[in-house]
Amino acid sequence: MNLSRLLLPVVLLSMLSVFASPGAWCAEVARSAPASATPDAPEEEDDEYAQPSVKDPLERYNRAMFKFNDRVMRLGLRPFIRGYERVVPARVRRGVVSFYDNVKMPVRLAACLLQGKADRASAEVSKFALNTTVGLGGWVKVSDHFAPLRVPEEDIGQALGSWGLPPGPFIVLPLLGPANPREIVGRVGDYVLSPTTWDRGSFVPERLEIMEGLSDEWQLTVSALDTVSSFPELLATYEALMNASVDPYVAFRNGFLQYREAAIRK
Predict the structure, then answer these.
(1) Counting CB atoms within 10 angstroms of each CB, which of 11, 14, 143, 163 has the fewest?
(2) Where are the domains of the chain?
């Protein structure tokens, strides 16, 4: 059977990167779901996740797209995730997540340098060296055992926010989920800086084009596995939030904005 036909479902599912990138915010939304579900929750001065100012002029469209994405999640993605969990052992799934996290060090390093966070940039380089060598290419996240190397993750969207670039209006993208103009630009930057996209014609020197030589099918496999590897954990928090929220749309919107603004301030 043609390999591209076998990979097509995986590639399509990998497009649903709202559930994998950026994934950390989803867990934070679930943690504070009851409060986030209330649009006018009062702001607390010392609360790291205090309610931000919400610009949602596209709410009618956003709610419709949120429902569409939820339907795709429940009818298309959930069965795939359950099958992935049954076939791939938990230890292997954790290893895959750690491997891709290690590979994406250039994204975090660039974001740290753009914000002038030299100490975190140094920690990222040390993490990469340790996990790549002792951690068997990143399969084992050895750096978690060293407190100085457990630094907050950075990305280009956070760097743009730290420069004072306003987020713009909230928008729910088809398949890609919650975003705003600043985050869209940041995700493009993350994509360009990720080594999994370093192919012929990319901005990196030829010797760093690690994807060069792979067929289109295998390049798609690498990208798809990167996204799919994070799905099981995110499905659990997604379903918990959907079940706990009075208004899931508001919970997701406010939680996403709260988490991103808090990440910028760290």
Answers:
(1) 163
(2) 51-265
